[in-house]
Amino acid sequence: MNRKFLTAVALAAPPCPSVGCISSSADPMKGFTTMISLRKFCRSSIAWIATLCLMCGFANATVIDTETLTLTSADPTQMGRLNRNGIISDWSGPKPFPGVVNPATPYHYITCDLDVGALEAGLGFSYGGFIQIDFDSTAATTFLSAYLDAYSPSNLAANYLGDEGASGNFFGVDPRFFQVVVPSGHDLVLVFNETTTNGGLNLPGDVTVEAFADTLFTDLSPLSPAPVPEPSTLSLLMCGIAFAAARRFLARNAAAS
Length: 257
What we know:
- The chain is of the alpha+beta class and 257 residues long.
- It has a domain at 61-212: Jelly Rolls (Sandwich), CATH 2.60.120.
- Helices cover 22% and strands 27% of the residues.
- The chain has a 5-stranded antiparallel beta sheet.
- Helix 1 packs across helix 3 (46-55).
- The relative contact order is 0.19.
């Protein structure tokens, strides 16, 4: 299973020992401890529970887009950037806007506009607006966030959907990921910016955008085949007239012979 999900479970699990925490000291794999907290499990987010389902292999992601994002000195700049508050956006509810830091400092940024509905339809699937964004980057000076339909560098709160919470891969090796919901008929706009002026240039990050039908990571449904149009009444009438004329012609020829 993808290491990012193992990472999510490790982050969500409570430290041992604690109330309701069970250690598997009898496990033959020395040094491995299974930590389960019933109290924490019942209060956990939808995304954490769905992670367990994914670990059991109940769903497969539909990848709708992949990108490699890189900032250069020629890219536009904005004043200020999103605050990295360590909270990863998930489907349990909208993440509150984290605020802006250094509003007088310029930062390079680029955007990527994705028509989710068109991308999914092009792959032969019906719409699913539960989007997971994987970001593979070891850079501590770049950051990825998501917006609905449009991004305004002068108003970072407008149309905000969510972000990855922090910069750089988990433990330096496992790609970060975050989740947002994009309603049908709307676009997903990814914003890639640096967190230190000129410190995020020429540091590429790989983005994978996955779509699901609901918060349980249900696969997207295939599009229904287009219905075969029924013949119109006029078409049927014309066929009937042609058939009758053909029979009359054959009957006359038979009588003449």
